[in-house]
Structures
1.
Amino acid sequence: MNVSLAERLRAGTMLGAEGYVFELERRGYIKAGPFVPEVVLDFPDAVRELHREFLRAGADVMVALTYYAHREKLRDVGREGDLEAMNRSAVRIAREVAREGSADGGALVAGNVCNTWAYDPDDRATRQTVRAMYAEQLGWAAEEGVDFVISETNDYLGEALIALEVIDGLGLPAMVTLAPTQPGRTRDGYEYGEACRILAAEGAQVVGLNCDRGPATMVPLISTIRDLVECAVAVQPVPYRTTSAEPTMQALRSADGERAFPVALDPFTCTRFEMAQFAVQARELGVDYVGICCGAGPHHVRAMAEALGREVPASKYSPSMELHPMFRTAISAKDAAFLSSWKA
Ligand SMILES: [Zn+2]
């Protein structure tokens, strides 16, 4: 029997791992552009494997891969008929792998919804459309069995509040995070801290930010949120080296001036050490749920877990450079000569 989200949060910093869509795109199972998780039905083993890699790396939550598995997006790729099967299967796969971590209490299972692209704050009719999309996705997730729901990459507070209402209606705990694409406000004009305060007042158990910004440009936004809410705070940046000049992954430009987002971001990727440093920094700022979003690899997650003081199953294979033939202290004369050539 899993403990609840509230109990996990009380027990100490939680570690989240996301970025399933980007990673499965790199592995050849998701098409960049629509980014619809067709992989759930077409290659379920690929999803299972990535869940397992994040679990071994220390993730406390298996997030069902239902990101963009909503009616609007499935219609774009001609698979609206697969909507229910895709949502149900994603939760089943996440549950199945979460149980594999049962030696240490098991991972929690999160249902997942995101921005719909259907919401328009100036058109009240879109609220009903969005509500219906969330209701069907989360209704299936609740039936399959999730411990809580993550509503994420919200551009609009208004849309996030609809998700929260639907999650509440199902009697599930909610973690609601905003996508900080703009310098300081949601697309409907609320400062991020104020938007989080409203979400907390409306009953979200966890609020915060996810995606779009790398640690360098997301961390400065955390403190205000931490100061404004009493509930748990989540921060899940992308592992990319965003800067004050290019604060989001969408703004990053390659040396030849081309937009790197979304499929040429590789040269901007943070090392595992940078993400480990971020995890510690976030915990020191009072963040309760430290995670990682698009671009994440299991090596990042393991380094974050270890920086937070944990030993995880994948730690068995963490680096031991003292065993590397060229880096160990008792290096032979032959190899020492070789090493000098690496400096050339
Ligand atoms: Zn993301």
2.
Amino acid sequence: MSNRLKVTPNDLSAFWMPFTANRQFKQAPRMLAAAKDMHYTTTDGRQILDGTAGLWCVNAGHCRPKITEAIQSQAAELDYAPAFQMGHPIVFELANRLVDIAPKGMEHVFFTNSGSESVETALKMAIAYHRVKGEGARTRLIGRERGYHGVNFGGISVGGIVSNRKMFGTLLGGVDHLPHTHLPAKNAYTRGEPEYGVELANELERIVTLHDASTIAAVIVEPVAGSTGVLIPPKGYLKKLREICTKHGILLIFDEVITGFGRLGTPFAADYFDVTPDIITTAKGVSNGVIPMGAVFVTKDIHDAFMTGPEHMIEFFHGYTYSGNPIACAAALGTLDTYRDEGLLTRGAELASYWEDALHSLKGEPHVIDIRNIGLIGAIELEPIAGNPTKRAFSAFVKAFERGALIRTTGDIIALSPPLIITKGQIDELIDHVREVLRMVD
Ligand SMILES: Cc1ncc(COP(=O)(O)O)c(C=O)c1O
């Protein structure tokens, strides 16, 4: 085993950790030193069952050989190629491979380096698309309460998570929000898609009436809202949004940064719900989280609308130094090979009912007020401690890590999304860890 496992940095202050309770962490650090398949190894040599695929991204499991080898050989062959006005073969190969598995109608791919960048790219594309089509007044963007679309200004503007927005000023102008779809009084303990709430999609008609369709560029939603604590769309809701967008010439963007690449048991959520958006944003699972990468899928109609004017002119003034970075492309190709060879983009469907039963066996455990599931995603919502929201779930997270399981919490919700290689035995083990910590926490 590597020496790194024995080394614990003795000064933790220089690194300002992202989305972390820095002071709490630095008093009692949770350090990961290695990983393989379904497990992390801590710096003190403990095995931790990964119940969250890292951060919803390691869909193929950890340190998979095809991905590791692809990165190693690419780094030795072509390390970097300029992303602007130059190309290299494997970025084209990757784009074709991605289009091959994408929902029908998605024919072009724009590369980014993260989910946040995919979102900014999609929002800019939507506004620019209407402009090149002669509808330059369509600039408004519609998001949804409780939505998470990354942390850049566009993403937090259309997003709807209060703590991600309130510190950062006035955000983008010209943004409105649909209501969220969380109706616990009616839908608690639903297995899969909830019965109630399809009518919430009609709120889009109200927003269109308020602003006029001619001012609206796009609606962006997560098909299943992940980071806010797993909110599954009510039956028929996404189809209804699609209908209203089509009727008013508004682009529909699915943010599939979490749901893309097999999380629901289908390659994309668009396949699961049989709803085709105009743009799909992805990241995370595209490269198994191993090298940062994002990919934005668009229809031929959107792509072709930009392909006008003098041929020596840049058609879309947008891109990143690392768009389609060769090593990230190699990681993504190794990832797609692994998904294909092991059937991982549909494995979630085989495990979904076992997963559902295991999760719902937690009903009746202390503090539990709702359980939700779809594909290989699950959420256990806890009653908050009065006057101390988030504390109970955070204690459960820390205790689970001490016991040997990585879970994730947001507010007072435990969210689970294991690698798609998980076995039934490991599902039982994960749920048992959760059961035990629910019995332990105050
Ligand atoms: C739906 C969604 N969009 C965007 C993002 C942002 O991705 P990143 O952290 O790679 O910028 C996330 C991250 O969790 C996400 O879940």
